[in-house]
Structures are given as structure tokens and as C-alpha cells.
Amino acid sequence: MAEPSQEDIDQFLELAGIFTNTRPERPIASRFIKDASYNLENAINNYEQNPNRYAAENYDEALFSQDRDGGNSQYAGVPSFQIDRADDSQGQYPNSTAATRPNTPSNSIHDSAMGDSQTLGANRSYQNQRWDQETGVVGGSGVQFGPANRDHYDTNQWALTTVVNTIPDPLPIQRRRNPGEPAFMKPLPSQDYLPSLISILSNIPLAHNAFLLKEHVLPRYGQEPQWWQGTPIAFPQTINLDDEQQSNQQSDIIHETQRLIAFLDYTERSYGSVEALSKADYFQNMPMNSNAGYDGDVVKFLEAWKTAATRLRPEAGFDKLFESTAEQVLSGETSSQPFSCLTPCLENGANGQAVSLYDLLDENLWGNDPDGTKDIHASIQSMAEIFVIIVKQPDITATGLNISVPSSFYADRYLREHEPRAKSMRSQRAEIKQQITRMQEKYQKISRFNYKAKTGDALLLLRVAMDAFRPRDAQDSTESDNGNQTKSNQDIRDEWALKELERIHGVIEQKLKELKDREEQAQKAYEQLSYLLKEPNNSVGTSPKFKYRLCGVSTDPAVVYMKARNASNEREGDTVDPARPLQDAQEWWRIHYESTPNISKSPVSEAQVLTAAAMENREALLVYASERALQQPFEDIPQSLVEFVNTDNMLFREELSEDEQPPPYHTPPAKDSNELAFEDASARDWFAPGPKDQPEMEEKGAGLVAEMTSGGGGTRMGSSEIQKDGDGAQHIEFADK
């Protein structure tokens, strides 16, 4: 039987891909065509009914990778190795033995294989019924362990345990701060973002100066050699009343924050710790009111410091430093919600769609009225000077946060004064989005076809059909009396069908192009509306004013990106001079506290920071600051805090000196106070009269010296000789040869 032509095979494969979304191998396609007597339509129908008709004739490599029993039916019921399932019974188990591997089947037991299997099953049943024995899994709690071979695990069912409660520190020499490098706070065992937040805020002028709270400075701040590791500095206090106790606890937050800011400004250490701050009583007992769903140390600190600082200086406006207030008017009733750390839910990002920070804020502020049609008016009543955000990607398959993090953004579109414009913008966007959806549905209806519950590309089907009607050769043509080729009736019908198919193909192609153009125009209009108050423009009254700049990112509790001030180039050993302030010029740094432990610090570009924020992890801390917060000059630290940092620096220098010295050589004490150990004795002590605890060494030493002195009974050491110094102590001098 002749083989099908390559053109027939190609057409079969194209039609198979259209109707079944699968394409068999060319030999299989050839077999279908031959068995259908070279009729492509019948071949395609046969393939649709049973695509695997000829699959069994292929070579099966799996047959050569079976177990040694060969999978033969004669061994059915005789397992090579029996592992019982977990039993749900909850009995006591007396001494017994678990089921073991049965004898390997061989030719001598072929006839009795089934009987052996039944015997083994009876034995196991007897053991389980009599002794309530489980095999394979100990315990019937339902929790079973095995290899992690599933494609997906629900993170809500994970159980996390704390492995360590401390973060290890590197050697002292590795903890020294190099000139020009910023200091930072090392991670907490709780893996919270508080250390990263403190490190970032210390480089924002408004936060830096507020944390110093120079109107309420202690005359001295105490000292603790291990404070840099997190050991609190305790002050003796006498507490009589409950309100005084709370006042002192609030003051502890203020004073510890002052220490941290001064430390970050002028320390010679590479890093410190916020653990003493997190251990403060007021910090631990801080109630969470404004951030439901998130009770981390970041929110606790911002709330605790705001409350304590406002009590000391109510007129300073510290409550607006970190706290924003969202407002919602529903059917005439107004409600407000303050928050110091925004924790938005990234919903669109979980669907693989590209999202920006504006999209994220739009979702969370206008989520109850996304299309602007409801009687709901949501806005931000007041915006904090420093805007803290923690974003999480709920999609566990994502490789990063997958959000476009801008270097700056404008908050005007969310403020109460622009709420009517924002609501109108959402309403217009909803109408355009409906138009886009209708056009997409129409495009899908025209561009696709359905056939026997299968879908395919309509234009592709038309092109395949056109190829089938194109003339291939002149075999079907007839020759006229004058010798010219004449078209047969079939050629004429094929030519007409081809032209009709080409016309239909052109109409569909033109219609799809028009739909695409209209969709692109609608999409541009949608984006133009979404651009409301995102960037300044020349139109009067429409330019945004409240700009926020990115000041820090933490993609992991151990990784922080911060825009740090250039550290002062103090010479090592110098004390802090508050008259020489730090330079205000800033650059981006990446700091990673590795688990080895090892510290890596490197300057990075802003583009690298934005990329890391979007792709480095599925969670990130973002800190933005207003223009006002960044335009203020940095204030110098008070003198009492200068002394605190100087003392800590001296303790660190002592630690460095001790680390550079070789370890002392310790020996057992002498037997009594009059005895002198050999290894502790100088030459003068050794040759002085008195008892010695090394008779053998004394004899050899005295004998050698006596021999060298007298010159008798032994060989002299060349021209070496024994001399006495001014104190009468003997010493040996070796003459040069």
C-alpha cells in the first residue's frame, strides 16, 4: 500500500490540532490516513473517536523498568513488600512483632501463590484483631509522615516552631563599622520588621528629630556592656501609684528610642539590637486598636511611641507623624479608622495581573465601591508624614511580590477634598471597562469556532480549507483539440470555493482588526482616567501637591534597603563630637544579616532597590516620607546621649583589644605558696636559691650550667660563656662564629 503524501499528512496534522488540540506523530498520522483509504475526513473522524488506536503498537520502555516479579498475573496478590496502612484503633499494644517481608516468589511456588497470599492476609488479620497492632505507622491520631511528594501544600495547615530564640553574632572584628557605612539594627528572633523600620526611620529627618525628643532628655542614660545585644538598661525606680507606673513605662519607650537613634548616628559598631525596646513593659502590653489583623512589633512600636510622646508634648503633633485616618460616609453616616501601618490585601496580584502601588491603594480604599455607583464615599481624612506599608503576596506560587513599587507617589487622589473627582473617575472607568469586556467577548466569538465540543482558531481553519482547494497540478485538467489545457468541472468548483473562502477570511480578519483597534482606544481612555492626580501637569487646579518619596524597603527581616546619610569619617578611637554633624547627602545601601552569621553591606542604585522590592520576596516593608519630613535638617544628639555612645564605643574598643590578644596560658597552681612553677619562672627566679617543684629540670639545668661554668666533665659550647648581670643573675651568651 502506497504511503500518503507529505501534504496529506500535513493537512491531517493541522486539522487534528484544530479539532482535538492534539497532534499525533507523523507515522501515526500516516497510519490513520491509510486505514481510512486516504480519505482525510474519515481519517480525522477516526482520530477524534480514538486518538490512541495505534499507540499500543509503539515501543514501551516502561516494560523494562518493572520490578523483578515482572508484574505477571501469576503473582497477583503476593506483594513484594507489605506496608500496612495506619489503623484507627486506639488500643494498647503488647509485645509482638510487625509484619515482615514474605518469601520472594519463585518457580516452585507459582501454583500456590494465591494460597500464600491468603495465608499472609489471615496472619495479619489475626494479629490486628487479637493484639490491636498497627504496622507501618505508630499511633492512630491521623497525622502521618512521609515524603513531600505533593505538588501543593496548604500553608494554613503548616505548623511553625521556633528553632532558636537568639540571633548569633559574628566575631568582634566583623562587627566593626567601616568608615562611610551606615549602622543598622540586627533582626529579632520573632522575624518582625521592627529592626528594619528603626534603621530606616533614623535616616528620615523628621522622624530622627522627633525620636530624640530633646525637651525630655535624661542627665545620664546608664550603661550595660551587652546593651547592643538587647540586654535592657535598668534604672532603680520607686513606684507608688498605678498612673506613675504607667508614666514610667511610657518614658522607658522614649528613652530607649533615644538611645537607639544616638547609637545609629555615631556608634563604632556595625549594628545594634532593638530587643531591649521590644522587652519594655509598655511595649509588651500595648493594645492594638487601629490595625486589626496585624499585631506585629512595627504597629506596637508606632502606637506605643506616639502615645508616650504625645503625653509629654501634646502640642507637638506627634499623633500625625505616623498615623493616617481613613473616612467612610455610608448613607449619611460617617465612620473613621486610624492606622499607622497599612497592610493591604494584594488581590489582583494573585491572579497574575500587573499591579502598581496606586492599584493596591485603590483596591483597599475603594473596595466597597470600585465602580463609583454606590452611596459610599471613602477617602483619607488626614495623611501621615511618614507612610508605612507592609505588602504580602497571597499567591504561594509567585516568585516575588509582583507589584510595581514607585520611587515616589502622590496621595492627593485619596484625600477628602478630591473624593468627588475620584468617585467620578471610577464611574467612568467602570463604563469603559464594560465596553472593553463586550468587545473582547465579540472578538472571541468571531475568532473561535466550536465543533463537537472542541474549539479552534477560525482563521486557521479557513486557511487550511483554502489550501485544500488550491490547484496542485494539471492531472485533472483535459486537453482541448487545439492542445490547450481546459479546466474540469471539479477545478471550476474548487476555484469558486477558494475565492469564497478567501472573501470570508478577509471579512473576518478586517472585523477582528477593527475590534482590536477599538479595544486599544478604550484601554487608552481607561488609563488616562486612571492617571488622575498621579503626576503634575500644566492644567490649572489638577496638579497633585502631596508627594511621598521612598526612603526604605525591607524584603526580609534580615535584608534592608535604606537611603542612609553618609556616616562621619571619625578616626577610630575618637570620641563623638556633636559639633561635627553627619553629612546630609544620602545614598542607597543594601544590608543583609546572614545566618552564618555574616554581615554584607553594599551601596546600590535606586533601580536595584525598586527591582528588589518587586521581585526579591513575596512580602515587603515599604516606608515613604513626605517632602516636609525630608526637608528638615537633622538635629544633633544631646550631650548626655553623646556620653552614652562614647562609653559604648570604649567598651567595644576593649572588646576588640581582648579579641586581638592571644588567649592566656593557664596552669595548675603550685603545691604551696613557696613553690614556683617552672613555666611561670623567669631566669632570675629559677636560679635564685629556694625550693623548686621541678627536681628533674633543676638537676639538668643546674648540671648544665655547672658544667658550662666549670668546664669539666663535658664539652664546652664553643666560645659561649656564663656571665652575670648587674643584679647577679646568670645568663648565657653565645659568641658569633
TrEMBL record:
GO biological process: protein deubiquitination
Keyword vocabulary terms for this entry: Coiled coil
Top-level taxon of origin: Eukaryota
Entry keyword Coiled coil: yes
Comp. bias regions, Basic and acidic residues: 722-737
Region (Disordered): 85-120, 472-493, 654-737
GO cellular component, one term: nucleus
Coiled coil: 498-532
Biased composition (Polar residues): 89-120, 480-489
Protein name in the entry: Ubiquitin interaction motif protein
Native source species: Aplosporella prunicola CBS 121167
